[in-house]
Design brief:
Elements (H helix, E strand, L loop, with lengths): L1 E2 L2 E9 L7 H10 L7 E14 L2 E12 L3
Antiparallel strand pairs: 1-2, 2-4, 3-4
Length: about 70
């Protein structure tokens, strides 16, 4: 979900999961949101929401910034 200059991604993993990929979660979330030409993202915050039904829930908040390339 994109709100102005931020992208919020819900990340759910099993409570006991030895091999998880933060990068894969971000990549999958970015595939659902279109970045405009000249935009890139930086990590703003990772928020632990809690545990529900043996899963850990996080929010990944990214800032959308202008690329300096």
């Amino acid at each position: 979900m994109r709100i102005n200059n931020q992208i919020v991604i819900e990340w759910t993993i099993a409570r006991v999961y030895e091999d998880f990929s933060f990068a894969k979660a971000v990549d999958n979330g970015l595939k659902q949101v279109n970045l405009n030409e000249g935009e890139k993202v930086e990590i703003h915050q990772l928020v632990n929401i809690g545990e529900f039904n043996n899963e850990k829930i996080f929010l990944i908040i990214l800032n959308v910034i202008a690329s300096k390339d």
